[in-house]
Amino acid sequence: MKYVVLIHSNMQPWGHPTIDFTEVGRAIPADERAAMGKEFDELLSELSASGELVTGLALDAPSTARTYRWEGKRPVSTDGPYAESKEQLAGFFVLDCATRDRAEELAAKFAGPGDVIELRPEMEF
């Protein structure tokens, strides 16, 4: 059985690793943050070696998202992650597209009555 670990954070500015961009993370002394980073890297190595780590992605800032809603008889898109708070993440698909236009074309096809679809690029760093 596979699980998706979704990491939610309120960072200003947006960046990765999150510990370097959150107020609480920046309050931790640099040597402790470095030790925590080393422990996390070791965890990822162990999970990779055991075959338990399938993949991981850092998402770009929420402002880069595109949201699709079903309105009337077709999906309508808006900039940003504007899903209502009552709506919860229900699934995750990874698309590998040559262009943002192609990704938006495909994301719109996932939108249906009662659904909100968010398209967010992977953050490259």
Automatic annotation (TrEMBL):
Residue ranges of every copy of the YCII-related domain listed in the record: 24-109
Highest taxon of source: Bacteria
Spans traversing the lipid bilayer: none
Protein family according to the UniProt entry: Belongs to the YciI family.
Protein name as catalogued: YCII-related domain-containing protein
Source organism of the structure: Kribbella speibonae
Lineage, opening ranks: Bacteria, Bacillati, Actinomycetota, Actinomycetes, Propionibacteriales
